Amino acid sequence: xxxxxxxxxxxxxTAAALTALGVGLWPSPSPMSLFAPVTAAEEEALPLxxxxxxxxxxxxxxxxxxxxxxxxxxxxxxxxxxxxxxxGDGARHCHALALLALGEPxxxxxxxxxxxxxxxxxxxxxAAVYSQATQAWLMAGDxxxxxxxxxxxxxxxxxxxxxxxxxxxxLGITARFxxxxxxxxxxxxxxxxxxxxxxxxxxxxxxxxxxANAMRDITRALxxxxxxxxxxxxxxxxxxxxGDTAGAREDWARAIELSPLSATADxxxxxxxxxxxxxxxx
Length: 282
Hints:
Layout: H1 2-17, H2 59-67, H3 72-84, H4 88-101, H5 105-118, H6 123-139, H7 143-156, H8 161-173, H9 177-190, H10 195-207, H11 211-224, H12 229-241, H13 245-258, H14 263-277
Helix pairs in contact: 1-6, 2-3, 2-4, 3-4, 4-5, 5-6, 6-7, 6-8, 7-8, 8-9, 8-10, 9-10, 10-11, 10-12, 11-12, 12-13, 12-14, 13-14
């Protein structure tokens, strides 16, 4: 369930917004790829976890959480009312998630961090809330704070693959690619089939000018999930770097076909446009 929560919370963000800022790939402009912050305008829809980490179990929490997707303002109002009546951690958690749903990731991240820090819940539940704070900081465009929250999560649950992937992503955004690879190595040792970890590691290897390792990881990712649009976006860049223009165009066109309304598709389309311009005009 923890992995499902991570996938849904990052969802659009990972698949779409964290696929920008290719460095040193083509002379100028660069093709778009992994590891860059997102702006609020790039969010397609706020992802919410299907099952939250449980700091508290109650009918009130279930009611509040059920409102988050369709009526976040109602969830916020309910959480405040419930908190005033002694709702405790459950009310404060729902309030923070409502702020996230209302497009206020900084406030949400601050509240989630504070809640995880003072809660008397078990390590796993507190770590999951720190991970939600990590994702909120990423949505707010503050990767350094995201690294901090993910580190707190990993202090509580060192073998949490989701937290390792979150921190690796934040480290990549801040250009700390070797540290990112260390986290991804650990994540993949724990879960060898984790496709997004392979895609992120391929991007990190590429940023370190290790095209062989990057292609190895992206080939493995696509063997596990042939329809992964982010992996196709990345392989297209690697193919372009090797001079395989036709292969790059094929991958980017396929990424658009598979995920047509995502920012991944937008980035693939930009790469196709750059490809059409040709090296003489770049």
